[in-house]
Amino acid sequence: MLRLIGWVLVAAGLLLAAALGASGGAPPLQVGLNLVVSLIGIVTLLLLRQGHERHASEFAVWCMWAIITVQVAKNGGLDAPNLLNYPVLIVVCGWLLGDAPTKTLYALTAAALLYFYADNPISVSQPVVDGGGRIKLVFVLIVLGLTATLTLLIRRSYLRQLTRAQDSTRALQAQEAELRKLSLAVEQSPENVVITNLEPRIEYVNDAFVINSGYSREEAIGQNPRFLTSGQMEPAVFEQLWSYLGQGLPWRGEFLNRRKNGEVIVESAVVAPIRQADGHISHYVAITKNLTAMRQARDEIQRLTHFDPLTGLPNRTLLMDRIGLVLASARRGNDCRALIVINVDRFKDVNDARGPVAGDELLKSLSPRVTRLLRNGDTLARVASAEFAILLENLGASPEAAAPRAMAVANKVQEELRLPFAVDGHADLTLTVSQGITLFPKGDDDSVQEIFRRAQTAMHRSKDAGGARVAFFDPSMDARVQERFVIDSELRLGIRAGELRLYLQPQVDADGHWVGAEVLVRWQHPQRGLVPPANFIAIAEESDLIVELGVWVMTEACRLVAQEQRAGRALMLSVNVSARHFRQATFTLWLQEVLALTGADPSCLTLEFTESLVIDDIDDVIAKMKLLAERGIQFSIDDFGTGYSSLAYLKRLPIHEIKIDKTFVQDATSNASDAALIESILAVAGHMHLKVVAEGVETQEQADFLNQHGTVVHQGYFFGRPDAAETWLQRWRAAGPTLKLGPHIHI
User: Fold this and answer.
1) DSSP 8-state class, residue 278
2) Who has the most CB within 10 Å: 89, 136, 145, 237?
3) What is the pLDDT of residues 177-217, one digit of tens each?
């Protein structure tokens, strides 16, 4: 609007100025004022171009008011024909500038007219009538006031309507945006959305429905939703659904529906009525979500939590839960139950010989064999790698009645598992198991963990006795287990507290001359006194404690060798090394560091190991032995003939001697088989140029037998019992290294 006014001012000003100039009689002021009007229009347009709409409006209105006022004054005041421009200007001001400027313009115009009236109260153009000038003034003011009032009222009404229209437009736009969002949300929802009429017939399905059901929109629209049902749902479900919808209430539940490919799926569903503005129900909407994958995942988690993935049997967690339930039931009914723990003997050998796949196949084959021996209600579980458990219920009202029944089950298991297994394409694998049995409950304070511990303790007792046995738990086992635990704990502290003592036992040749000594260890316990090795070595070998023990013994032995070496005496010592210690990756580096720190001569050391060392990773064992042999260390096979003796590995190992086990030596003079065995060992050693040491020589007859059949180094009570290292060394130093030992000289 303002731009149009600007152009009108420019055009009108120029045209009037041109017309007045062309008439030739117009005053120059009149022409100039019209040119000013044109200039006002130009400035207004420039301000608009720069975006100053408000300034342009104010400039145009007030400049035009000034021009009009000058022209009115010039043309006779109240009699001027230009007086009619004021109403036009008031209308323009009202539309462009609003209330306050319009009121100001009206006030200024009224003031100007009052001035004109005061300057010329009686119009010269009309007859002199009393009061005529005042009447005209009042009339003009009234006209101008009405014009201003009507203009402002019209403008306000217009602005209100414009505001309402804008508000309505914004509301419609917002509603459209919400509808678009709702439509997109429904269309792109991952859950199925189905809208039906009241019949009900499907009128709308979203993309998720098409994807999840397998039906296209064309196939679904117009159908009754029942075409999706699997036929596996109870009629009561649909009765409840329509009961809720009939009351105008939403229904929540689950459907067993069928996809187009025939797959039955579980869906959670919400079905609700759709109400129109007047409250009546026009449609139903169903929102469903496929729960099948979630249910499968939940079932899989449940299976992995409570069942063994390899055999499908209950695992330890589920077994413990069932023991707890059975224990509670047994307390109420005073009935005996039993728990049998089963461990497969030498299962590691199966894995080593046939591989872990064959081992897994064996465990899977074992499960059904044992299961078919059990009654309904009994439980077979896998609780560890090669360990199973059987929970037996309802064995009788007393332990006397229950024990034979539990033992009968264990014996059946032993017999069944002795039959060959077909594993890895071979039907020749046999196995034995060690079993431990405990009855429960044993008192009101019996617990699940205690029951399982008792059965495991009995099983370990069977295993310690050689395997392939069944053992019932008895309280004496607890005492032995407790004793082993105490010894393990106290020995760990004792090593650090310096309670170990080094002992030496002499080794002599056929003439009784000293050729070396075996290093032994004793434990000087502060309360128990001197503890023999039989009471703690086997316990230490069950854990890494044997490594800590071996570190101490080797370090002390090297210290003694270095000590005598500095005095000019060559002390030849044999030191036992555990397989667990030798297999450590850092063993060779550690031993070389010990030799370097103590200064001991490696050629004075012989490391003794049992044949079990070469069962695993023989190549690594040979590499370590060769490295140490290059440093001068010698090697001896201890207890030769009692383990996995093999000439194949014997010739590969860089060994220097073999030690005949004392069980052969002690019976050689009375047992032809032992005598023949010793003769064979001596023959093999002779051909392989190996030194032979015989342990357990306790009589002259035994010594003579050995000397008659070969060159043998003797070690045993006949030539000397183990003695404290310092005591032994003092006697050895005093007697000299060529001391001849006999049955009455103990070093």
Assistant:
1) T
2) 89
3) 776 777 776 777 788 899 999 989 999 999 889 988 999 99
With a pLDDT cut of 90, the percent of the chain lying above it is 35
SS3 content of the chain, % helix, strand, coil (to 5): 55, 20, 25
- The whole-number average pLDDT for the span 362-371 is 93
Answer whether 42's CB lies under 8 Å from 57's CB.
no
SS3 90: helix
Position 364, amino acid: K
Q: How far apart are CA 362 and CA 364, in angstroms?
A: 5
Which of the residue ranges 3-12, 191-200, 203-212, 267-276 would you say has the lowest mean pLDDT?
Answer: 3-12
Distance CA 527, CA 693 (A): 36
Residue 1 pLDDT: 66
Chain centre distance of CA 499: 46
**How far is it between the farthest Cα atoms of the chain?**
180
Helix/strand/coil for 737: coil
Cα 340 to Cα 392: distance, rounded to the nearest angstrom: 8
Distance between CA atoms of 146 and 91, rounded to whole angstroms?
A: 11
Distance CA 55, CA 61 (A): 10
**Kind and range of the H or E run holding 637:** strand 634-640
Kindly report the three-state secondary structure assignment for every residue of 679-726: HHHHHHHHHCCCEEEEECCCCHHHHHHHHHHCCCEEECCCCCCCEEHH
Query: Residues 218-240: pLDDT tens digits?
Result: 999 999 998 998 888 888 888 99
The closest alpha carbon to 507, from 714, 742, 724, belongs to: 714
218 three-state secondary structure: helix
